[in-house]
User: Fold these one by one.
Assistant:
Number 1:
Amino acid sequence: MSGAGTMEAGRKARAAQPIAIVGAGSIGVAWALVFARAGHPVALHDPDPARLAAAPRELDERLATLRAHGLLDEPVQTVAARVGIATELGGALAGALHVQECAPERVELKRELFERLDALADPSATLASSSSALTASRFAAELPGRARVLIAHPGNPPYLLPVVELVPAPFTAAETVARAQALFTAAGMAPVLVRAEVEGFLFNRLQGAVLREAYCLVRDGVATVEDVDRVMRDGLGRRWAAIGPFETVDLNTRGGIASHAEKMGPAYARMGAERGQDDPWTPELVAEVEAQRRALLPLEQWEARVVWRDETLMAAQARAARPADDEDAA
């Protein structure tokens, strides 16, 4: 690492907000890595001594793997040294301006834990939950400091998947959301604001829709588990690694997403009806989606974007092929 890089890392570490991670399971360790890599001092707490004892080794292993792949611009020891182990909750929260809760997905447990966090944390600290499906209203609605509570749900692992869903409750203050957006963005994450409290948010609702259909296809004898995974891995997943479902169908059909809805909408409606789902793509809904897509990509740029999509897929395929080529050469 260059001298300038070392100075910059030191400046970041001095200026960065102290972070408390409550829960030292896989997500807690992963969050500690995210924030420490961004220069934050981190206090990691778990009520289970065995978890706390295992966390430093797990952190070192993940950091070493990132370093081996060129994804860590500081020595492993430098980043790991920013993470301290706190045996007491109060000690972890002392001085923290952001608290990231990573406890199991049980509403009563979270309710009790957030009562303690609200009582012990600095009044200016943001209290964020890594909840995968539970909304903040289900466990924080009665807190005196509920205005500083929101969901910050990561993909797993967050040090490789930068998206983080920020889900405020109706009682969450706007400044709480703004602080969280700024913090996660500065830490290299990609915050997505979820505009209404719905169970599962965006990530798990989209993932759940795919999983529900996948289970049905196996149940009905249409496909094996490996068949489904292959279609996702070698088909949809390759495209979705570069573009999402709306852009996929927008680029798949000349004339864009409105043309796709006209041609394929009835078939998708029939597929949904097979599963008892009645969510038609109404003309008004299609017009709204079309307007948002055209704001992102005017039709006159459609051809160029299709070329970009194909070149992106080619580059990904070439990267995937290189290790095998190198092994053959060896």
Number 2:
Amino acid sequence: MTLPERAARSCWHGAINPLHSTVYFSPDLGKEFAALGITDRNAVNLASRSAAMGAVGAGTVTATFYNYRHDLVARHLPAVWETATPAQVLAARLRAVDSTLRRLLGDETIASPEVAEAAGLAMRAAEACTRHARTLYSAHADLPVPEEPHLKLWHATTLLREHRGDGHLVALLTVGLDPVEALVSHTASGHGMTPKYLKYIRGWEQADLDAAAGRLRERGLLDSEGELTPEGAALREALETETDRLDEAPYEHLGAAGVARLAEIGGGFTVQAFVAGAFPADLMGKA
């Protein structure tokens, strides 16, 4: 059965990406990394996201992450690997995932059959992911699959998240958005991070954001108030449509009923996580 329009995109936005992302805003991650001797918040973020690739340097991470400022990345990589090995970082991240999901969802939910069902559905979808040109997905696909259902679910959402993310970078190049333009236009759409977090997490300065906004205005994609023009909105939709196309295989493999069920169950977990304070209140939006 053909998937309903945007079903895969809705499942990814509502169930997959939020569950994966909970750990990166969790105090549990900071505690686990502090025990390894890594205390800088940016070093924690960069190491935890890149460790699956091994002890890589700044150039590899800047290229693979696309929208982080290179100066920020180079400040911490490869130096962080002198403090902890990638294997230690990955183990610490998984411990943080365990404590984070238990705290946000509660032990009753963690032990529920729905978690095991969602894990099975997400892993089945991931069977159809492909490695070529998918650096972060392929690196994570080499990691062992955890046995506990809630950790297996998180692992599966990671595979699906990085598979879509790797394809999204291809789409960004196709539509001609550089790293900062991609972030600024996403924020203007109302679905991206606020400027505060573009500076805090991605390392950009206000001058960088302002310059990118100027380039977008010159292309007719932003208006004088920083809102997307009709042309800008159309470009963002074309970007997401191309990302959908590049990411369709896992969801076609899972099938319409499976995608709907994963969205239903995973979406419920996402709501629980949001209510429990998984993300900063000012993370998303235009201001």
Number 3:
Amino acid sequence: MSENSELRRHAQPFQVPLIGKSVSQVATSFGGFLATCAGMYVLNETSFWLALVLAPLAAGFLVRIFIIQHDCGHGSFFRGRRANDALGLACSLLTLTPYASWRRQHAGHHRVWNDLDRRESGADIYSACLTAAEYRDMSPSRRWWYRTTRHPFIANILLPPLVFLCLYRVPFDAPAAWRRERRAVYTTDIALAAMFGGLGLLLGFDAVATVHLPVMVLASIFGVWLFAIQHRGEDVLWARHDDWDAASASLKGSTFLRLPAVLQWFTGNIGYHHVHHLNPRIPNYRLQECHEALPPLRKVPGMSLRDGLRAVRFILWDEDLGRMVTVRQVDMRGTGA
């Protein structure tokens, strides 16, 4: 048995869900989110700006709910498929993310991440990149488009709310053959319309908008950044398919984001992304336990919060240098600067 296969075998015991921790995480995440939103509704009667103070806290709880949905999509939060899917659907009504469609898209990401020869079969702009050579071979207009769509302000500030509020309302990234997933997108829309329509009739549509829109905007920005940098950074490795294997890609192609304890709690330990990619069936609340138990995982270099903020600039893979680079670095090399 290879060293990488052995590591994956040693990680298997940690994929067993702990029902007490799962239930506790649901209670604290949903309870915290609903309580904070209720507080925002109360404060909104006095002042919108006063209510807005609680929006980052509500967004933090919403990110945690998305992590639960993410675990459910991997079948890791509960032992049974039905329990995972039922909870994942409940999460989707708060995250505005159609569960079935996102689950299948995300499964594609896990099959091809950091594989240079399979980038077009399940990746998105946050978990895929061009090589430096491919970028240099583009026309000036296409290079401009690539730079612009992946600029940190566009990709990490403007685009995330658009994706969650608008693009997820249609099956924009689901192939025509995904009939079940495409129908599920519209079913989610109907449920959302009923839920927010009922809230609007009960509490007022202005109140619903002033509470939930800021929360969704903040949660989408932070959540997308959180997932985007899990395969970014100067030392992240990409490989050609013949040299790619899942375990090596987990240790070298996924990051270990070290966060302060409070942020680690709100992000459901997803910073231990190298462990998650090694075995996606491990529940989020056991990722740290697995990391600390297996020496090869502890050797993965950690990324600080500051490094994570810088990582969004690394959007090209330089095969000659064997590392991620920024557009500016490639342009400077091209001019001989």
Number 4:
Amino acid sequence: MVDIQVFKKICNESNLGEIVGVPFSISGGLLHKMYAIETDKGKFAIKRLNPQIMKRPNAWKNYINSERIANLVSKKVPATPAKIINGDSIQEIDNHYYMIFNWIEGKMLKATAINCSHCEKIGSILAEIHRTDFSQLNLNEELGERLQSIEWKYYIQKGQESNAEWVVLLLEIVDRLYEWTSLANNANKLLSANLVISHRDLDPKNVLWHNDKPVLIDWESAGYINPMHDLIETALYWSEDDTGSMDKERFSTFINGYKKRYGKVQANWSTVLENGFSGKLDWLEYNLKRSLWMECSDEEEQMMGTTQAIETIKEIKDYVEKIPILVDWLIQEE
């Protein structure tokens, strides 16, 4: 928990007013910590950025650019960028970095609560984002073609030394991990010639609903991406139930909601889906690092890294089984 004095300092330096009541922790996803705070000027959500992430060379620049994207697209879709305070969307207080948001009334939908109407709305919004002209931001396409080189056997060795829970699971698929990495790299080369700017993490946890109207939050991953890869990955987010099984009707409705706004969609769907390994493998490696205390701030984060590594291994194995089914569904949609 951040000390109350830190919140007072944030409020003072950001002109948020005098604190009313006690700030409290709220769900902040899997990377950062979020707090709710009320002052005599209103209610705000404060994101304390993960200090390990902020040590990365391009972290500051990436966050600034993602907020520029969110600000521009918020004129077309219901998006919530961070508040611009003293000319910046990131505030540095006592060597920690914070982003401040106006409070949004709404709730995230659990998988069991998502219906076809929700899928159609988000599909249409995703198409609107893809159709947005971001050229005035002058962002480099440096996030386009990005080859992975991950030494999975190194993490297995480190995991064995520390008796990590996930070692046996990783050993079972180590050869396939290298195979999937190669497939992702080849697919990325083919798809990187066609890029748009998008949210890139538009799963249900990043959409708040109020009176059946959505608001898109957490734009920190925003950047260049192949539109068909983004479409299929996002459609999957919204069509999976709480066990990870796919609902064909929700998937189809999402695709159709997108097509109504974007137009016809067509691609080599096997290549698009192979590109889907990339983000999952990145996320697995990051959580292996957290679990091994290689990129980790505290015990809570280390435990989360272990849990997420185990879950991600299962998700990747499940994804392999889904690919041929999804290819069939997508061909039917053309």
